[in-house]
């Protein structure tokens, strides 16, 4: 699995620490991946989906946070659609969740397709 190299990184979420590898493994085992996105783009989408679920937010809530429509969030999370988050979106999400923007990025470079 792509994210196994990050097992030792621990993230504080919801008042306790949990390894994001667990969340990525769960998501990757139940959801197909975008076929046209780069691994780094998929990684950012997976992190955002994990945070949305952890904080019990709806797609419409995320749309308000990043000042887009709920349908945009649906398009990003739809694995048949090439929509993706940009740096402005990442910054808004980081501010809302009180995280550094680098939280949405992998610790090490991901190999190209």
TrEMBL record:
Give the signal peptide range.
none
Q: Which CDD domains match?
A: HTH_XRE (cd00093)
The residues covered by the HTH cro/C1-type domain are 51-104
Give the top-rank taxon of the lineage listed in the UniProt record for this protein. Answer: Bacteria
Q: Which GO terms describe its molecular function?
A: DNA binding
List the InterPro entries: Cro/C1-type_HTH, Lambda_DNA-bd_dom_sf
Would you tell me the protein name for this molecule? Answer: HTH cro/C1-type domain-containing protein
Q: Which organism is it from?
A: Pedobacter hartonius
Upper classification of the organism: Bacteria, Pseudomonadati, Bacteroidota, Sphingobacteriia, Sphingobacteriales
